[in-house]
Design brief:
Radius of gyration: 21 Å
Structural class: alpha+beta
Number of helices: 4
CATH class of the largest domain: Mainly Beta
CATH superfamily of the largest domain: Ctag/Cox11
Strand content: 35-45%
Order of helices and strands: HHEEEEEEHEEEEHE
Distance between the termini: 56 Å
Length: 201
């Protein structure tokens, strides 16, 4: 039989767990809100923390002879009925040299879908060293029922990336979009036409 002290301890633990959950909810909401934010907000964020967004002709390549493994992963948020998968889930690339991959998208439903891909880079130390010269990140997409598409990604790991980093993950999350909101945002320039560098572009 539990003592009074044990019961009190168990009740305290339950309250702490409940408090932790309540504190976590706004954090999750803020994270979702940021990744779902509009391109100008993202640009301001990048400039604030020192992440560069440069024209393609400013990308510098170098032959380092140092190899790094790149993992490609992705998930769909909510119930978005879109299947997508990289052509190669793992690549071994040379740091300082460009490399490319592609993603295949399939609308598995009988309805037109609207979504936005948002990417992130792990580990944190590689985020500002991973430059994408061609990507579909933050591009609002519309796919007809049963439609299939393929998008190419061209990237480079900066030659001055920490030598202790031997593996980098490029992760995509697809967020469903409201078509009316997409129409309003068509006037906003897309940064994917330039070079995106950093953790969430």
């Amino acid at each position: 039989m539990e003592t009074q002290e044990e019961l009190k301890s168990a009740e305290t633990k339950r309250k702490n767990k409940k408090l932790a959950l309540l504190l976590l909810i706004p954090v999750v909401v803020l994270m979702f809100g940021f990744t779902y934010a509009q391109v100008p907000l993202f640009r301001m964020f990048c400039q604030k923390i020192g992440i560069s967004i440069s024209p393609l002709n400013e990308v510098e390549y170098a032959s380092t002879g140092r190899m790094c493994k790149v993992l490609y992963t992705g998930v769909t948020a909510g119930t978005l009925p879109v299947y997508f998968k990289p052509k190669e889930s793992v690549q071994t690339v040379e740091v300082g040299q460009p490399f490319k991959n592609s993603y295949r998208f399939v609308n598995m439903s009988k309805d037109t879908v609207h979504f936005r891909p948002v990417h992130s880079i792990l580990p944190e130390g590689a985020a500002t060293k991973f430059t994408m010269t061609k990507c579909f990140c933050f591009d609002d997409q519309t796919m007809a029922p049963g439609a299939e598409r393929e998008f190419e990604v061209v990237s480079v790991l900066s030659a001055d990336m920490d030598a202790s980093i031997e593996q980098v993950t490029l992760h995509y999350t697809l967020f469903e979009k409201d078509p009316e909101t997409m129409e309003k945002n068509r006037e906003i320039p897309n940064i994917a036409s330039g070079t995106a560098t950093g953790g969430s572009n």
